[in-house]
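cache lookup: miss for this entity combination. No prior model stored, computing from scratch. Input as submitted by user K.M.:
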Amino acid sequence: MTVTDMLRAHPQAVADTDAVARCIDECLRCTFTCTSCADADLDEPDVQELVVCIRRCLDCADVCHATANVLARRTAFDPQLGRAVVEACLRACRLCAEECERHAAHHEHCRLCAEECRRCEQACADLLGSIA
Amino acid sequence: MTVTDMLRAHPQAVADTDAVARCIDECLRCTFTCTSCADADLDEPDVQELVVCIRRCLDCADVCHATANVLARRTAFDPQLGRAVVEACLRACRLCAEECERHAAHHEHCRLCAEECRRCEQACADLLGSIA
Amino acid sequence: MTVTDMLRAHPQAVADTDAVARCIDECLRCTFTCTSCADADLDEPDVQELVVCIRRCLDCADVCHATANVLARRTAFDPQLGRAVVEACLRACRLCAEECERHAAHHEHCRLCAEECRRCEQACADLLGSIA
Amino acid sequence: MTVTDMLRAHPQAVADTDAVARCIDECLRCTFTCTSCADADLDEPDVQELVVCIRRCLDCADVCHATANVLARRTAFDPQLGRAVVEACLRACRLCAEECERHAAHHEHCRLCAEECRRCEQACADLLGSIA
């Protein structure tokens, strides 16, 4: 079962199924990855250096979760709200990626999280090009 | 205990405590009100007429919840992300208010929900004026 | 507008409106309080001592939010799921209160958070007595 | 990037990485699938017949999301809270699966959602056997 399968089973046809499905999929992964990275940060001996990272991860997880939900709903989809949410998500992912990249050399969870945030940021950027 | 008490107990001073506290407070109320209104809609005999209302309520609840969380975090607050999230929230509240107002004469829960969404929309607009 | 007003406007009559309304209300407050306390912890010079507190706060916020949502929905309410969710919430609140109480003398946000978690724990316990 | 990769990058060793990773993974998928199915239900001509299904899907999405978050956090993991949350999740998934199965013959999204809920229910049951 994939995100695409569910979008195809929805009575409402989606104009750009691939871009929407990819953005939802990355938001789901990014929600988990950021939640996990924030918690891994807490368990590191240098937690004091990771305070901003934790904050960025928690914001990113919250915004990605809301974005996945708004995009998952196709009934009476409002493009202006869709754009506003995806723009906030792109910003949250970029901020989190930038911070995690600063710790990527020392913490594998930050390296993985930065990569995921960059993928989600790109999926948001791609989708913004196709939301009317 | 109020939102203001918690913001004052935070080591990070908030420039515009009242506007932030009010926006968080309305987002919390609006999250519940929209969750409740969507469910009350489901239980109405004319649910078919309330489909758009349910969708607007669910989106609004998700976006308000994320907004409350992002605003509650004052450590390394990013004004650009703050603005993007509050703008999305304002849009979600306005859409939901407009739809609930169409049903306010027939359903008390829609009337209450429309009022709450308008308060939250206003709190978002007021806060946008003060986020640097 | 109060939680009770929305429950009364719902087409589904709630047997124990006061207990349900109080539990939802405390869950909403506790979601915010725990989100705020976790972030305030991050900003303290002794963050290293507050790692468990942050973890407890984040769990408590997530579980309280889900509990508020499940309780807000009265259409086809399932008492067994209601009980299971409220039991998890009671446990999350107790754990968070116990940890925050350890820091209450040094951090006002922990003191306020512990108080809120105890109120929410009590509201959960009271509601468990009345869910069939 | 997989859930397992993040759990392995966490400083806290997880005793039963495979069972935890599988449960988190199914909770993430189930959160989306239920959000999508609830919205697809709204768009069906027979929405009146799908009211219970929508309610079950919304509860299941909320509980799965909270469960994924609690399980993702390994720092100071509390087994009793872990069990309580996974038990609530198992119940939410079973209820949603039972309802979606009633509509699986007429709606592909209900068929897919029922399958996902059953997988998540099983992952919860398997994990309960291994949480101390």
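stored under new cache key. The mean pLDDT of chain C is 97.
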